[in-house]
Design brief:
Elements (H helix, E strand, L loop, with lengths): L2 E3 L6 E6 L2 E6 L2 H26 L19 H23 L5 H30 L4
Helix pairs in contact: 1-2, 2-3
């Protein structure tokens, strides 16, 4: 017996293997893309918040700022730019599955470049926050 059910918009094929039911997902890729897209949007939004405000939210506990020692406006701006770079990288990877192959290759290359820039900004801002005050 096989039937296709749609919990939360995801096609799942229900079949039997021996005496136990077996679930096989047909559209897991769409769910993963949706989660990645939402993550990328939140990273870009959080990065824009940091760039525009120049400070982390007051309600954040200190443990969430772990690699940072002194949070200055410059450090916050750099952390925001790093978050934007990572978010843009994720969004470009998600978008690459919906465009032609030649464009997708360029998007993936741009995503890797954005990720690398975001990583370098993150490392630099962490180092900058640990540098002795002058």
């Amino acid at each position: 017996m096989r039937r296709v059910v749609r919990p939360l918009g995801v096609d799942v094929e229900v079949g039997w293997q021996g005496h136990a039911p077996r679930l096989q997902s047909l559209d897991v890729g769409y769910v993963v893309e949706a989660v990645a897209y939402i993550s990328g949007v939140f990273l870009v939004g959080g990065g824009l918040y940091l760039v525009l405000r120049g400070t982390f939210p007051a309600w954040w506990p200190e443990r969430l700022l772990w690699p940072l020692v002194r949070v200055t406006p410059t450090v916050s701006h750099l952390q925001g730019l790093a978050a934007i770079g990572l978010g843009v990288s994720i969004l470009a990877i998600v978008l690459s599955s919906a465009v032609p192959e030649s464009t997708a290759g360029l998007l993936v290359l741009g995503a890797l470049l954005a990720y690398l820039i975001g990583l370098l900004l993150y490392i630099f801002s962490s180092w900058l926050s640990r540098r002795p005050a002058s």
